[in-house]
Design goal:
With 223 residues, the protein is mainly α. It has a single domain, classed as Urease accessory protein UreF. It has helices at residues 5-11, 26-31, 39-48, 50-66, 70-82, 87-107, 112-120, 126-136, 141-163, 168-176, 179-189, 204-213.
Length: 223
């Protein structure tokens, strides 16, 4: 799949959306004993659980935003939050969503659906916000799902470089090795379904560890 410049901008970890402050649960896993050789499996596990569920919401939100359906976006907000058991992770998702929307309002000024969602949504879960922003960038649901997955997994890889003795080439090579699986997961996630039927798979250890991680005053990453 070929991506245009706006899509690549959303996928770039240097775009100021706040994602650099999150490890996707990797820091908590490292503190619990995960070592370098376990990180590829951790990344693959995220791909098929919580990351997959999130990008399904991103794709659905892209579709709802393109159809100018604020009521559907509100339903997606509720459904997305209902699928995250950890209060800390729900709050982090809201923070990331707001940061993404704030940046996108500068990148794509005058997009009515984006501005309406930014001001009307009380919770702005990141996957729904990402879908709204993807629509503002002119992306299709499949493109939004693919880029959202890339963003999620590369955030973990970037965190690994800071937390463990691995260089960037090695860490991002783990994500590159999953290219085919990422493509398949994105295609599945972009399949249209009712909001109540969107995936609800989660990573239980990521959820549980986030509760302790939130109380750790010496943490490097917010999640």
């Amino acid at each position: 799949m070929a991506f245009g410049p706006l899509a690549l901008l959303l996928a770039d970890g240097r775009t100021p959306t706040g994602g650099h402050a999150h490890s996707g649960g990797l820091e908590a896993a490292v503190n619990a004993g995960l070592r370098v050789d376990g990180v590829p499996g951790f990344i693959r596990g995220r791909l098929h659980t919580c990351a997959f569920a999130e990008v399904a919401f991103a794709a659905a939100a892209t579709r709802a935003a393109a159809a100018q359906q604020p009521g559907e976006l509100a339903r997606l907000d509720l459904e997305a939050r209902a699928r995250v058991a950890s209060p800390m992770l729900r709050d982090a998702s809201t923070t990331l969503g707001r940061s993404l929307l704030r940046t996108a309002s500068r990148m794509f000024p005058g997009r009515a659906v984006l501005e309406a969602y930014r001001h009307d949504s009380a919770t702005t879960p990141r996957p729904v916000a990402f879908g709204v922003v993807a629509d503002a960038a002119g992306l299709a649901p499949l493109e939004a799902a693919t880029i959202s997955l890339h963003s999620d997994l590369t955030a973990v890889a970037a965190a690994a470089v800071k937390l463990l003795p691995v260089d960037a080439a090695g860490a991002f090579g783990w994500v590159a090795a999953l290219a085919t699986e990422i493509e398949h997961c994105a295609a599945r996630a972009a399949t249209p379904v009712a909001s109540s039927e969107l995936p609800s798979v989660s990573a239980t250890l990521v959820e549980l560890r986030s509760l302790r991680h939130g109380r750790d005053g010496g943490r490097l990453f917010a999640t």
